[in-house]
Every structure is written in structure tokens, then in C-alpha cells.
Amino acid sequence: ACAAEPGAATAAGQGSSQASLVDPLSERELEILALITQGLKNQEIADQLIVSVNTVLYHTKNIYGKLGVNKRALAIARARELQLI
Question: How far apart are CA 43 and CA 26, in angstroms?
Fold first, then answer.
């Protein structure tokens, strides 16, 4: 008999979109991705989240890396493909 792996329930609970990523997006990354999708610029995102622009850039870089893209438009397209947004 096969026992379920300890993290299996957690991965399943995140849905197929997050499960298809090797490194799932954090809640903050998903929040920033949603704002990017709305067309907000880095400064606007920073103002809305009350963080520095450098913090937004840090999260954006992580989002791009996790989605395997290097541009905002590609990040949005990939996120839609994975049903993250």
C-alpha cells in the first residue's frame, strides 16, 4: 500500500494551477501579480501596498523567475494560462 506524502494534501489544496509550478507563488506575489494584471506601474503598486518600489521589484523578479518569463505581458499571459488570475 502507498501512503500519501505529508505535503500531498497541501499541494492538492492549492489547486492545479499552483501545483503545476515547481515553486508556487506566495500570497504577496499573487497580490502583486493581480495588480500588474490591472496595469499598475511599480510605483502605483508600491503606493497601494505601502511598500517601497524596491520591494515591488524584488517580488516582480521572483514572479518572473517562477513563471519562467522576463516581461510583464508574458507574466500575465503565463498566469492566465496557469489560471492564477
Answer: 20
